[in-house]
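Bug #77: duplicate submission created two jobs. Keeping one. Sequence:
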Amino acid sequence: MASRHRSIRQRAERLLAFAATLLAALVIAGCASRGDTASVAPAQSAQTQPAATTVLPSWREGPAREAIIKFVDGVTREGSPSYVPPAERIAVFDNDGTLWSEQPLYFQFVFMLEEVKTVAPKHPEWRNNPAFRALAAHDQAAIAAQQKEVMKLVAIANSGMTVDEYDSAIRAWLATAKHPKFQRPYTELVYQPQLELLAYLRANGFKTFIVSGGTVEFMRVFAERVYGIPPEQVVGSSQVVKYEMHDGKLALVREPKIDFVDDGPGKPVGIYRNIGRRPILAFGNSDGDLQMLQYTAEQTRPHLALIVHHDDATREFAYDRQSKVGKLDRAWDEALAKGWIVVSMKDDWNAIYPPGQ
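Kept job's structure:
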C-alpha cells in the first residue's frame, strides 16, 4: 500500500497544469463578495419543469427571449427556409456559471478540497505537511504560496479509489454540503430560466448536452435528476481510469492523471469526439466557452450562440472581465462584434433560482 501511495504522489504532478486555474480561484474565495442573500428554493426535477405550452415564463420580454423563440420556431417549422431535421438539433450548454452558479469557487473544486480532509486520517504523514495545515486552517496566503504541494494533496485525495467509490463520495457530499452565501445545497443553485429553456428545447425536438470543463463523473451524479440530461449526454474533462485488481476484485480505478481537458479549445474536440454532430445552439458564460461558441457560430446552417452575463449582485453575483472564476472578457468582445446574444441576468431573467415546491 505504501508503494502505491508513493507512485500516486509521483504521478500527481501531471495534474498541476489542469488545476492551476482552480487554485487561483481558491485563493480569492476567502475574500469573494457575499452580497445580499437571495431566496433559494429546491431545484425542480425534470418531471416538474414547466409544460411545453408555457414558453419560458422566467424570461422577461426582450431581445434575448425573442431571439430564442424565433430561432426555435425557424428550425422546427417544416417548410421554413431555416428548418433543421430533429436528428441535427443539437444544443450544448456549459455547466458552471451557465446552468448553475459558480462563485465564489467552482463547486466541484470545493468537493475536491473536502476530499483532502476526508481522507486525511489515512495519511497521518500529512499532519506535518505545511500545505495540509494551510488547507485545514483556510489560510489563503499560505495556500497561494504552496500551490504545487496543495494540488498534490488534492490529486492524491481524489484518486486511487474505484469509480463507484468516488461516485458515492460525490453523492454523499452533495447531500449535505451548502453554499457559503445562500446556505442551500449546491444542486438547488440551478438557474430556473435555463431549466425552462432545456425543457423548451427538448419539447421541440432538440437533444441537449452539457459540455463543461468540470469532470464527467462529478456532473453525471446529478445532471439527469436536476437538468433532465442523461449521463451519456454529459461531455466533460476526465481522469485516466484503469480496469485492474483493487482490494481483491476487478474494478475501474481512478489514477491521478488527466485524460482530457474539456475547456477552451478542448470543447470543440470534446463535442466532435462524444457527440459527432456540430451544435446549432450553444450557451456559455465565460472565456472558457469561447471556442465552443465559435464552433457553433461558424457554420452556414442556422445557429444561435448565447452568453450569460452575471450582472446581478443582489440575486446572485456580479462579475465579468476581472474575475478569477468564470472570467468573461474575450468571449464578451466577440459576442458584441459578431452579434451573439448576451443574456443579462439582471434584465432578462425574472427569477434566478427555482420557486418552492
